[in-house]
Automatic annotation (TrEMBL), chains A, B:
Stretches for region Disordered: 105-136
Protein species of origin: Brevibacterium permense
Protein name in the entry: Metalloregulator ArsR/SmtB family transcription factor
Record Pfam families: HTH_20
SMART domains in the cross-refs: HTH_ARSR
Database matches in Gene3D superfamilies: Winged helix-like DNA-binding domain superfamily/Winged helix DNA-binding domain
Length: 136, 136
DNA sequence: ACTTTATTCAACCACGCAGTTGACTAAGGC
DNA sequence: GCCTTAGTCAACTGCGTGGTTGAATAAAGT
């Protein structure tokens, strides 16, 4: 359907699902247990769990007629890795910018060397349908 | 419309938008620059930027007829904080579980004390529409 | 003033999703 | 064997969203 990262983000975009994840971080639970606090039908919660499941955030085993839901915390790393990557990149850029501004401020009338425009290394998971791209 | 956390996650659930964020981490860009690589209309990209904007992930200023888009990296912290919280909670739980299992293994026929079911402290950002019905 | 460039607004469409209700399957308990 | 418990599947609905095209706005350029 879509890449896992998209599915994980989409799964967590829903407050009910985030709440479910929060509660699963405390203890594995059955569908009924999970559904109890919410004002929606059991089936709705079952659907939420399905979404969480095929995003990889939770797994389900079997215990008699119960299907205990278990949080797969390792998937979080997928997100944090993505987030941290671009957060850092952005932060580094500001540091570079600060340096440039400082330099500009230091010797204003001096030579203006361009600060080697860092080539945007493409993200494997990211770039979707790209096109011809006319040269700069 | 919804809480910011939901909006941020929803915004990043789309590969095109993630790609835009990735590229903005390298440099601020105009809408046209951002739209160029994708195989969709300019208006579609404009819409994506709107989504990113009211999730707080980007901001737009004005430079003549251009509206340069800028990545607000601080919003990432909102997500990482949420993620880390439950990730840690889950990890701690496994450590506790390990400890219990170890203890059980150590003295098998001893007294079986129930391991104080930790009360799920509710997350302020999480718990959506809770209910009364369906008593225990 | 007229045109071009950059971007948004508006109306529309297809699709997916969160929710519903009702029927179904699966596994015990009696 | 039959009822209860636990959960899913199926069909339907309303709404949000990503995409489209066409018109409108904003600020230069000439």
């Amino acid at each position: 359907m879509a890449d896992q990262l998209s599915k994980v983000f989409a799964a967590l975009a829903d407050p009910t699902r985030r709440d479910i994840v929060a509660r699963l971080s405390v203890a594995d639970s059955t569908v009924n247990e999970l559904a109890e606090p919410y004002d929606v039908s059991l089936q709705a919660v079952s659907k939420h769990l399905k979404v969480l499941e095929d995003s990889g955030l939770v797994s389900r085993t079997r215990d008699a007629q119960r299907r205990p839901v278990h949080l797969e915390d390792n998937v979080f790393d997928l997100m944090t890795k993505w987030i941290e990557r671009y957060k850092q990149q952005a932060e580094e850029r500001y540091q570079r910018l600060d340096a440039v501004l400082e330099a500009m401020n230091a010797d204003e009338e001096a030579n203006d060397s361009d600060p080697s425009a860092a080539s945007a290394k493409e993200s494997e998971a990211a770039s979707p349908h790209r096109r011809s791209r006319k040269g700069a």
